[in-house]
Amino acid sequence: MAKSGGTFKKIIILLVLGAIAFAGYWAYENIFKSNVHLNGKKFTYIYIKSNATFEDVLDELYSENIIDDHESFEWMAKSMHLQDHINAGKYRIDAKMSNRSIVKMIMNGKQEKVKLFFNSQIRTKEQFIDYVSEKLEIEKSELEDYCSNEDILADQYGLNSENFMALIVPETYEVNWTTHINDLFSFLEKSYDNVWTKAKKEKAKALGYSVPELVTIASIVQSESGIKTEQQKIAGVYINRLKQDMRLQADPTVVFANGNFDVQRVLSADKEIDSPYNTYRYKGLPPGPICLVNPSTIDAVLNFTKHNYTYFCAKADFSGYSNFTNDYKVHMKNAAAYQEALNKKGIKR
Fold first, then answer.
1. pLDDT digit string (tens) for 213-223?
2. Half-sphere exposure of residue 271, counting CA atoms within 13 Å on the CB side?
3. Rounded CA gap, 6 and 21, in Å?
4. How high does pLDDT run on average in the chain?
5. Is the dihedral of CA 282, 283, 285, 291 positive or negative?
6. Residue 2 to residues 8, 10, 112, 190, 196: CA-CA distances in angstroms?
7. Which residues is 46 bridged to in the sheet?
8. Measured between alpha carbons, how far is 15 from 23 in angstroms, rounded to an integer?
9. Residue 23 pLDDT more than 50?
10. How many helices and strands in the chain, by DSSP H and E?
């Protein structure tokens, strides 16, 4: 009997150990083992929209063929009650992630930040709207409505639909994919306020310009040159012309009016376009900035060089510097030399 009892105990122990081993194997396979298939990639992203349902989450994962074993994932997700704790966002799925780690990430809302690179290449309201709507969950139509709402723009920022791009400081913003439109503009406004201190606003006012007007001047200056000392001198030219009620006749405004930002040469025909941004046809400043303006350019304009020049033209050596004069005949000679230099380089457009 003792021997029989010992054998029985051994069987029980073996069964328990087997059950434990099976449970461990099952747990590994269904909970801890990687259940992600990325075709050799190290990671990918999924996007869970606001108010997404459990089925929407599954559709996002399955439509991209990210999950190998659907049954084990759904069991894990339901066991952890994912359906009651879905957080919208952009999520990074790594190749070695398990069912549990994916579910936990979504439940905890550990989403990836989206980087918005706003630079001088974004020139128009339409470009801004297209870029943001491609990068964030915000609908294009919602942005269009917001950026055209004169009441909101005036009350909140002292701007309008033509000059609201003055609000955007070119830098990199890190935000959630699910960022609400009001929060996005709060980020933009914060950077704007950091640039436009009380002292700078007062300096602009002393010069006779509002902040959006100053930014508009700076956008033209920045489009003319990236050299600070040149920017200061060019700003002086445009301010002199404004004071003397002369047309600005700024080539960058013609480029903006035509909407072809790749041209290196402005032609006479370009200057005929009927647009409020064409400063060859209309006096004063255009309705708004023609590009996003760097804070350093704003400083250059606020501290413009005081002189009597009303004309300038890029030097024929393409050094980035310009010839300045207040004599129209001299200016025409400088312009002819530059045009000839363009011809020699074969720059026709």
1. 999 999 999 99
2. 12
3. 22
4. 90
5. positive
6. 10, 12, 64, 83, 92
7. 91
8. 12
9. no
10. 14, 6
Q: Are 126 and 164 in contact (CB under 8 A)?
A: no
Q: Which residues, 6+ apart, have CB-to-CB distance to 130 below 8 Å?
A: 140
User: What does the domain layout of the chain look like in residue ranges?
Assistant: 28-108, 114-195, 199-344
Contacts of 320 (CB under 8 A, 6+ apart): 225, 226, 227, 230, 314
45: DSSP letter:
E
- Rounded average pLDDT over 7-34: 54
* Percent of the chain at pLDDT exceeding 70: 91
Taking the C-alpha atoms of residue 260 and residue 252, their distance in angstroms, rounded to an integer, is: 11
Q: How far is CA 160 from CA 13, 70, 214, 287, in A?
A: 80, 51, 15, 10
Token output for 202: 């007062």
Is residue 217 a contact partner of residue 235, using CB atoms and an 8 Å limit? yes
Side chain identity, residue 254: V
Mean pLDDT of 121-148: 95
Mean pLDDT to the nearest integer, 118-141:
94
The DSSP bridge partners found for residue 176 are 113
Residue 226 reports pLDDT greater than 90: yes
Distance from C-alpha of 175 to C-alpha of 114, rounded to nearest angstrom = 5
| CB-CB neighbours of 252 under 10 Å | 22
DSSP strand pairing (322-325 vs 172-176): unpaired
Could you tell me what percent of the chain has a pLDDT over 90?
Answer: 77
Residue 26 pLDDT: 47
pLDDT of residue 11: 62
CA distance 214 to 195: 13
CATH label, 28-108, candidates 3.30.1490.480, 1.10.443.10, 1.20.1250.20, 1.10.287.3510: 3.30.1490.480
Q: For residue range 263-308, list pLDDT tens digits in order.
A: 877 888 888 899 999 999 999 999 999 999 999 999 999 999 999 9
